[in-house]
Amino acid sequence: PAWCSKELADLMHSINYLIISNHHPRVGHRSICSQEPRQCIPSNFVNEDVVALPGLPLNCYKDSWLACLLPNERKKLNARADKQYNF
Length: 87
Hints:
Elements: H1 6-21, H2 63-67, H3 71-77
């Protein structure tokens, strides 16, 4: 997403990788079709239309995206300036 910092995007990709790598049927059970998690293919595509999640720590948002917001949009975003996410 256009609003997402690189660090947060990397974290989300890591979580996707862990989910996929840990998704195996239990011993003695078959895999059920269409139960596998979706695999995200890395891409340089940036979706400008994705709505930003409100209330995240300030360092989860891309600085250049934050700079383009109007004051009322930034207020609605309710970014947590008092918190920093430790990636």
